[in-house]
């Protein structure tokens, strides 16, 4: 089901009236439709299949270069994303770092970023987002291990309440071999090295 833009626009008009604004004043006249268009983008992942980008895999053992079978992790760092916190409907944004230890299947690197984008385009909490990314990759690729580290800044923390403008939240989701902290230590070091 796609976002019902007409209903969103009507609801935003009601919100504007509820906060004491006039939705007919020139600066706000187009706001309900603009918000509806933005929500269609922000929540476009609600009905999308997050595993779909991972459907086109390459067999490591039977692929074009079986002699180059990976012995370690495949990592894509600094995947920029934005999402909407389901608690306050405020944006949160950051970077996801995704690594997997292939079994027999590998996938194009852009597919990993697409998984992040699809799952972030839903009302979310950061903790669940990381877990969903890890589950999707682990299941679709039958990976021996998956590690997802997310570092994000949340509008509910930076713009309201205590207003911790520089605070970021880091979450870790691990599957398979990477549930062992010693096994993921090298990957965590590689992520940290990219920050310099």
SSE topology:
Elements: H1 5-18, H2 31-42, E1 57-59, E2 74-85, E3 91-101, E4 105-107, H3 109-120, E5 123-124, H4 126-141, E6 145-154, H5 155-158, E7 169-176, H6 181-193
Parallel strand pairs: 2-5
Antiparallel strand pairs: 1-4, 2-3, 3-6, 6-7
Helix pairs in contact: 1-2, 3-4
Short description:
The protein is of the alpha+beta class. Helix content is 36%, strand content 25%. Helix 1 (5-18) packs across helix 2 (31-42) and helix 3 crosses helix 4 (126-141).
Please explain how this structure is put together:
This protein has 196 residues and is α+β, with helices and mostly antiparallel strands. The chain has 2 domains: 5-41, Orthogonal Bundle (GTP Cyclohydrolase I, Chain A, domain 1), CATH 1.10.286; 56-193, GTP Cyclohydrolase I, domain 2, CATH 3.30.1130. It has 6 helices and 7 strands. It has helices at 5-18, 31-42, 109-120, 126-141, 155-158, 181-193; strands at 57-59, 74-85, 91-101, 105-107, 123-124, 145-154, 169-176. Strands 5-2-3-6-7 form a 5-stranded mixed sheet, sandwiched between helices. Helix 1 (5-18) crosses helix 2 (31-42) and helix 3 (109-120) crosses helix 4 (126-141). The protein is elongated and about 65 Å long.
Key terms:
196 residues; alpha+beta; GTP Cyclohydrolase I, Chain A, domain 1; GTP Cyclohydrolase I, domain 2; five-stranded mixed beta sheet; 36% helix; elongated
Low-confidence stretches: none
Radius of gyration: 20 Å
Q: Could you spell the SSE succession in H and E letters?
A: HHEEEEHEHEHEH
What oligomeric arrangement do these chains adopt?
A: single chain
Widest beta sheet: strand line-up = 5-2-3-6-7
The CATH topology annotation of the largest domain reads as: GTP Cyclohydrolase I, domain 2
- CATH level 4 superfamily of the largest domain: GTP cyclohydrolase I, C-terminal domain/NADPH-dependent 7-cyano-7-deazaguanine reductase, N-terminal domain
Number of helical segments with 4 or more residues: 6
Helix percent reads 25-40%
Q: How many DSSP E strands?
A: 7
Measured distance between first and last alpha carbons? 43 Å
* Second CATH tier, the architecture of the largest domain: 2-Layer Sandwich
